[in-house]
Amino acid sequence: MDLVKVLQAQWDRVAAIAATAAGAILLILGWYHVSDTGFVSKQLPYIASEGLGGVFLLGMGGMLWLSADLRDQWRELRALRRRLDATGEPIQAAPVGADR
Amino acid sequence: MTSVSVSGTRTKANRRSARSRPVELPDGPEPWGRRDAVLPGMLIALGVLGLVIGWFGISDAVALERQMRWLAVGIVGLIVGGFGMVVWLLFGLVTVGRLRRAVMHEIDRRATAAESLAAPRVQVQAGTTGFGAVPGMRHYHRADCLLLQGKPASFAETKEFAEAGLAPCGVCLPADATGRGARRA
Hints:
- Helix content of chain A is 81%, strand content 0%.
- With 100 residues, chain A is an all-alpha fold.
- By secondary structure, chain B is α+β, with helices and mostly antiparallel strands.
- Chain B has helices spanning 12-20, 34-60, 64-118, 158-163; strands at residues 131-133, 139-142, 154-156, 167-168.
- In chain B, a hairpin with a 5-residue loop joins strand 1 (131-133) and strand 2.
- In chain B, helix 2 packs antiparallel against helix 3 (64-118).
- Chain B starts with 11 loop residues before the first helix and ends in a 17-residue tail after the last strand.
- In chain B, 25% of the residues are buried.
- The model of chain B is unreliable at 1-9, 122-127 and 177-185 (pLDDT under 50).
């Protein structure tokens, strides 16, 4: 399969992997830099930049991956809805409390 | 005195009519609309801003006390950004859930309609005398037995069922051919 097409179709998962990898690298770099110095005032900038930044990117990666899963579910349900719409009345929202 | 409903005010009647109105299902290519992206986008941008400001501030500060303040700015940025991500996912989950429920409800409705068309049901009235069985059953029942309700049953006397090799039902106990049976009190 063409790599460009895969990247275009799965851009959200590619971005999720990239963000997670970047976050992990930042955290490792932060740990390396912090362990290299003994002064707290020198350690704190690394914690603020690489530590917090790494955690933020890890969260971003998780969010992007879950978003991709939601998009997949949405597409499948939408296709199902189209098929149901084509064979009957257009679907309305389910009544409150139905199918919970 | 007539009551005037001001548009935009939320009265009980307005809320009731809004609840009974059919809800439009979103039909975009994604579960998120543009409006859904505003709040999470702003929160995530604020979070990034807090992280960057904290980073720059802590780099310039030398005193530990001032560094701690900038670190707090960064942590608040992280929390705000994380909250934005959660809100984004929640919006998506809610929209996907609404569509899933609507589709499942419709499938269920159509399946029920198809079942009722495929099997014409014989509704046995309460108080009907006689005994019945459904083809494929190994027991015969009283006409008002719950196990016969809604099933396409055929009715006959107990003797005929016994000759056909069917045993009396253990629930309604149609032991007596007169119809009174040995039902438990």
